[in-house]
Amino acid sequence: MSASDPLASSGRFPAGRMAFPHRDLTGIGHLQRHEILYLLGEAEQWVAFNRQSAKHADLLAGLTIINAFFENSTRTLLSFEIAGKRLGADVVNMHAAQSSVKKGETLIDTAITLNAMRADAIVIRHASSGATGLIADKVDCPVLNAGDGSHEHPTQALLDALTLRHALAERGEGAEDFTGLKVVICGDILHSRVARSNILTLTALGAEVRACAPPALMPAGIEAMGVRPFHRFDAALEGADVVMMLRLQSERMSGQFIPSPREYRHLYGLTKHRLALARPDALVMHPGPMNRGVEIDSEVADLVGRSLITRQVEMGVAIRMACLDVLTREARGVEGWTA
Amino acid sequence: MKQARPLAITDARLVTPAGVVSGALRCGEGMIVAVGADVCPQDGDEVLDAKGRLVAPGLVDFGVFAVDKPAFHFGGITRAALMPDQSPPLDLPSRVGFIAKSGKPDLWVHPLAAATRGLAGEELAELALTQQAGARGIATGRRWIADSGVMLRLLQYAAMLDLVVVAHAEDAGLAGNAVATAGEIATRLGLPAAPAEAEALAIARDIALAERAGARLHFRQVTTARGFALVRAAKARGVKVTCGITPAHFMLSDLATADYRTFTRLSPPLRSEADRQAARMAIADGTVDVIASGHDPRGPEDKRLPFADAAPGMAGAETLLAMVLGLVRDEVIDMTRAFDLLAGNPARLLGVPAGELAEGLEADIALIDPDAPWIIDRRKMEATADNTPFDRQGAQGRVLGLWKGGVRLV
Is B247 contained in some domain? Predict the structure, then answer.
């Protein structure tokens, strides 16, 4: 266990495997609060590690990790690839964008094929909600969800939480969790897996989450997930500690959901002027890639000391290293982690 | 296969339109000869002692997607109305004629002809010719006719032919590519969802058009409180509207989809718990006329997929009777009404002389133990596929014997 994690050494977490008794990471929805905190704690050592000049460990030496991406991705794929390589694993990327993979049995067949190649962990991104869980049922190794449809993107939410934890600690506001923290998530909540995983993570850690979206992009019954819905961004921003912007797909800004990008910016763009409605030193986050000048203005995205956007990318590698480490402990025979 | 010898079933609890009576039933040459308390076997009859068990009409399953004899016979179904959603669709007299003869003699299939060519919702199919070929109704398929002008002309034409129009109640604009009902569960799962009002909108429009056309209109599945309210009100005004439901919608809510199990991917999708309760109320108060299986066996190529990519539908023929007997046990309905919903009303909608235990009708008879317990097990099903959302659920009520035209099948 990490020496840099004060919570771990305090004996707060159950011993060994009981600290994280899941084979897969398919979503935050399956996790208990202490399991989320455990993964965040485990990532701390890798944050420090990644800041060294020599960044290579042999923890996962000899293990094969397959990144099976059925949907295009640049940053998440790169982040997982770097995470696996820094831990010494053999990382293979399978690009199988939805267009080239026929539907039908192929998804399951692909899973069975990957399984037969004896992967030690499979990272999956797929355009359909629930696809990761479906594959997890068919393979014998740990499966990590790198985003399934509009369902979940658990490592994104974990890296966001880790980023926030660091930023708050630097301000002297660090605490065990996010109790009382007011977080606004604004954008296309309806189609966003990032929003769902973040809502689950932040509410589990005690934050007060406000979800802001135009009516057409707000899913029904979102209140049941423990958030307050807003349609007016200005109202949602009042007194907020953190503003988390979501990317809006350009095809949704051409009349179907939103009349135009400039109309979206008019109502939901995070401008410097609008950010002033939040707490004076409110933090700004975005999972990327950004539509600068649409959902977020450059002068906000680049605010030194307030914008955490590049920090999020940094934390992403550490979180993915922690997840790969924890999920392969059983296979590696780590003491206390074997069944 | 013709009935060789007259058959007498004695010591039976007979489900007749007038109620459940103890007595006997005789049939000969494929027809019911006598039924009632004072009926006695005659010389030369084959006699079967029902030992006080239920003897009911064979079920008339209104609106199935596949002809699946073993499943139908297991479930006590002797006639089935086949939806036009076949490949290719039932939009030509020749296809309808072929289907009309396809199940005989041990299962009668009553085709519901496609209302429009290719079920595309644009051009009317040759409805009078398909009627002549054996169509017993016209169906829009598992989709809504979006163009109100086409729907009105269809209803007027069907009224002239005195054919029932079987409609699918989901406003296509609202439903879009939805696979779930908007609400907490769909939101948590991140599934494309449509508001439940998509059903009420479609029903309101189609009732208005049917009222104007004077047509007989049947909604194969009504599943929401608002939908039932519209049908209830239209019936009270004297509109010739009827509606049905399948057991999934009065047994399950959208909570059953929470693990992305594609056997619960249905069309229309499963609704909220409040709507499920409204469905049970509507069955109790007479708003619902038909309970059907919607039998649609689907193999892994259609179902072992992510939820939104899977085909809708469930294999329901084997569990239909047990689910409806569950409503009797829960005192939602009585036994007589149960068989009105399962046999009498569907036969009337199709205009076929069947669905009741009455002299002069075809001897389509089921011998049923309404209390026999069993576990629904998808690995042991008779259907061509195992996609039941009720897997591993306990059920009560089994068919012990089934006769079609006096010939024993089970």
Answer: yes
Query: Among A33, A51, A56, A75, which one carries the catalytic annotation?
Result: A75
Longest dimension (CA), chain B: 68
In this structure, are strands B108-114 and B137-139 parallel, antiparallel, or unpaired?
parallel
User: Per the CB < 8 Å rule, is B188 touching A225?
Assistant: yes
Does residue A107 belong to the interface with chain B, where contact is any CB pair within 8 Å? yes
Q: Does residue B25 lie in a domain region?
A: no
Q: Which amino acid is at A120?
A: D
Question: Residue B269 maps to which CATH number?
Answer: 3.20.20.140
Instruction: Using the CB atoms, write b or e for A9-35: b if 16+ within 10 Å.
Output: eeeebeeebebbeeebbbbbbebeeeb
Read off the amino acid at residue A60. L
The C-alpha torsion from B191 through B192 and B195 to B201, rounded to 10°, is -140
In this structure, how many other beta carbons lie within 10 angstroms of the beta carbon of residue B407?
16
Who's near B164: CB < 8 A, 6+ residues apart? B137, B138, B158, B216, B217, B218, B242, B349, B350
Q: Could you list the mean pLDDT of each consecutive 10-residue stretch along chain B, which spans 410 residues?
A: 90 96 96 95 95 98 97 98 97 95 92 97 97 97 96 98 97 96 97 97 98 98 98 97 98 97 97 98 98 96 93 97 98 98 98 95 97 96 95 97 96
Q: Does A149 touch chain B (CB under 8 A)?
A: yes
Tokens read off for A143? 């499966």
Cα distances (angstroms) measured from residue B141 to each of A194, B116, B126, B298: 38, 9, 16, 17
B360-374 pLDDT, tens per residue? 999 999 999 999 999
Is residue B138 in a domain?
yes
In tens, the pLDDT along A312-323 reads: 999 999 999 999
Asked whether residue B121 is assigned to any structural domain, the reply reads yes
Query: Tokens for B21?
Result: 């009576």
Structural domain that includes position B92: 58-350
Are A221 and B306 inside 8 Å of each other by CB?
no
So what's the pLDDT on residue A106? Answer: 74
Radius of gyration of chain B (CA): 21
Domain count, chain B: 1
ipTM, two decimals: 0.91
Q: What single string gives the DSSP state of each residue in A50-98?
A: HTSS-----TTTT-EEEEEESS--SHHHHHHHHHHHHTT-EEEEEE--T
How far apart are alpha carbons A241 and B354 in whole angstroms? 71
- d(C-alpha B283, C-alpha B285), whole Å: 6
| CB distance B44 to B37 below 8 Å | no
Q: How far is CA A310 from CA A172, A290, A303, A319, in A?
A: 21, 12, 11, 15
Asked if B374 has any chain A CB less than 8 Å from its own CB, the reply is no
Is residue B81 within 8 Å of B60, Cβ to Cβ? yes
- pLDDT recorded at residue A256: 85
CA distance B307 to chain A (A): 7
Query: Rounded to an integer, what distance in angstroms lies between the CA atom of residue A124 and that of residue A15?
Result: 29
Please check whether residue B80 is in contact with residue B110, taking contact to mean a CB–CB distance below 8 angstroms: yes
> CB-based contact (8 Å) between B173 and chain A?
no
Cα atoms in the 13 Å half-sphere on the side-chain side of B110: 24
Rg (chain A; Cα; Å) = 20
Q: Which ranges of chain A would DSSP assign to H, the alpha helix? A: 6-9, 33-50, 75-86, 106-116, 131-136, 154-170, 193-204, 233-237, 261-268, 272-275, 298-301, 309-327, 329-332
Decide if B238 contacts B310 (C-beta within 8 A).
Answer: no
Q: Among A126, A151, A153, A182, which one carries the catalytic annotation?
A: A153
Concerning whether A125 is annotated as a catalytic residue, the answer is yes
